From TrEMBL:
GO terms for molecular function: metalloexopeptidase activity. InterPro entries: M28_fam, Peptidase_M28. The keyword Transmembrane helix does not apply. The lineage of its organism: Bacteria, Pseudomonadati, Bacteroidota, Cytophagia, Cytophagales. Coiled coil: none annotated. Residues 202-404 form the Peptidase M28 domain. One of its GO terms (biological process) is proteolysis. Keywords: Hydrolase. This is M20/M25/M40 family metallo-hydrolase. It comes from Aquirufa rosea.
Amino acid sequence: MRKLNVIIVGLLCAFTSIGQSIHKIITVKEVERIERYLASDELAGRKPFTPGIELAAKFISEEFAKNKLKTWADSKTYLQTFQVYKPSLKSIKATLNGEVVDSKKVVLIGKEPKTTIDEHSAYAQASIKKGENFFQSAYKYIAGKTPSVVWVDQDFAALFARLSNRNVLRESQVNVLFILSEKLDSYQIEVEQDITPLPLSNVVALIPGKSLANEYVIFSGHYDHLGIMPNRAVQGDSIYNGANDDAAGTTGMMMLAKYFKKWNKNERTLVFAAFTAEESGGFGASYFSEQFDPQSVKAMFNLEMIGTESKWGKNSAYITGFDKTDMGAILQKNLAGTAFSFHPDPYPDQNLFYRSDNATLARLGVPAHTISTSKMDSEPNYHKPSDQIETLDLENMTEIIKSIALSAQSIISGKDTPSRVDTSQLK
C-alpha cells in the first residue's frame, strides 16, 4: 500500500503542473457517484429504445449543464437525435440460375419496403472468400456507400444466418445483398419488409477553443449496453449493467469534461460525446462522425472499458492502433516523469482498432484511438451480468482518467498535432 501511495503522490505532483488542482476535481468519490448511477439496476442495462437509456441520457445532459458546457451547433439540448430504421421481413423469394433456392441463403441489408435485385441491377459485385474475416468483410460492405451484391463462400454457412440479426439500419444505409453461393450469372431476389423509423440520441457537449476554434479534439465513450436478457440470466440476474463496458469510459469522458472546463486553457475546441448503440452496430458514432470535416478533427480519445487493471497492472493502459499514428508517442511523452504508462494494444489479433467507436473517424484519416485496460483474452465479466461496479478498481480508474487529462494537454493546447492515419493501408 505504501508503494501505491508513493506512486499516486508522484502522479499528483505532475498533474498540478497543468494548472488546476486536478486531484480536487477528478476524485474517486466523484468517479464512483457517476459510475454507480450509470451501472445501476435502475437503468436496466441502458439498452437502446428503453427507458433506461433515456434516463442515462438525461443524467449525462444534466451533468454537462451543471458544468456549463455548450451544446453542439447551438442546439437547445445536449441530445444529438437521429433516425434509424428497424426492418421486419415479410417475404423473400430467391432464384439462382433459374432455380428457386432456400431463402435462408439470402440476406438483404436495406431499408426499402420492396426490393427486386437481379443481374441487370446497377449493383457492384463483390465476394467474401474463404480465409477472410467474415464479419469484418461484411461490415465493410454494410457500412459502405455503394449498393452491392456480395457472394459469400460456403465455408461461412454457419455464420451467414447471423447477418439477418442486424435489425437496425442507419439513415444512409444502401442495399447490400448477401448470397451464400459462388458468383452466378443469373439471379433474382425479391424482398418485402416493413420498415419502422426509430429515434436514437448521442449526448454531445463542447468547450469552444480559443485561437484554434475550428480544430477539434474529441473525447468519447458509449453509454449503451445490452439491457435485460432473461434468456441469458446467470444465477437469477438478467440485468447486464455494463459497469466496465462502457459506463467506465462514459464516466471518464464526463470527468474530463468537468476538468477541462475548469482548466480553461484549450486552444482547440473540445467535444465530449456519449455515443448510443455501439453494441448494436456503432450507429451513434457513425452519425456523429458525419457532422465533421475529418480534416478538422485533430485527435480523438475514445474511452472503452477502463475500470479494471490492464495486463501490466495499475497505472497503465493501452492504445489501439498505436502504430497507425504518432498520437501514442505524444501521450507517452507527456507522461514522462510520472508512474503511468501507455502501451501498444497487446491484442492485435482481435482487431480492436476497428471494433470500437473510434473506427469511423479513423477510417477517414483521423488519429482516433481507443484507450482501454480490458484484458480481452481473459476478461471474466465481459458481456455478462457480473459486469457490475463491485468488480471495478475505482481508485485505479480515477488515476487513468487523470493520466488521460495530462497526456492530452499538448494536443488540446495546439502544441502537438498527431499524424494522420494512412487510409490507403486500412482494410
